[in-house]
Specification:
- There is one protein chain.
- About 50% of the residues lie in helices and about 20% in strands.
- The protein contains 3 helices and 3 strands.
- It comes from Bordetella genomosp. 7.
Length: about 110
């Protein structure tokens, strides 16, 4: 289980780095400096890694986007508690100025109690 989380976190981090390069090469990139964009990418990576480390959340069900320190969470989870936990975890990350929580609840995704 720990190996799976590590692999997921590594894949998420790599995807953020590759997407950063793609945006940097794009002529119509956001009007952020390279430093601001890199900082936002780092915040996104930290939030996703925190989701991977949290046993109550599924990092694969929640998308994270950061723009000028404002983190937007989207996706679908099984319970309202997971929605609140995701926002709480994101707020605790250094560099996060604000969290916009657009996560939806789908009870069919709720995990069974063990």
């Amino acid at each position: 289980m720990r190996t799976r989380k590590l692999m997921t976190a590594t894949a998420l981090g790599a995807s953020v780095l590759f997407s950063a390069g793609a945006f940097a090469a794009d002529a119509e990139a956001p009007k952020q400096s390279v430093g601001e964009y890199a900082s936002d990418a780092m915040v996104t990576t930290k939030v996703k890694a925190a989701f991977v480390a949290d046993d109550t959340l599924s990092a694969l069900d929640i998308a994270v986007e950061t723009n000028d320190g404002v983190v937007t969470l989207t996706g679908t989870v099984g319970t309202e508690a997971e929605v609140e936990q995701a926002a709480r975890v994101a707020r605790d990350i250094e560099g996060v100025k604000q969290v916009s929580n657009d996560i939806k609840v789908d009870p069919s995704k709720a995990r069974k109690q063990q």
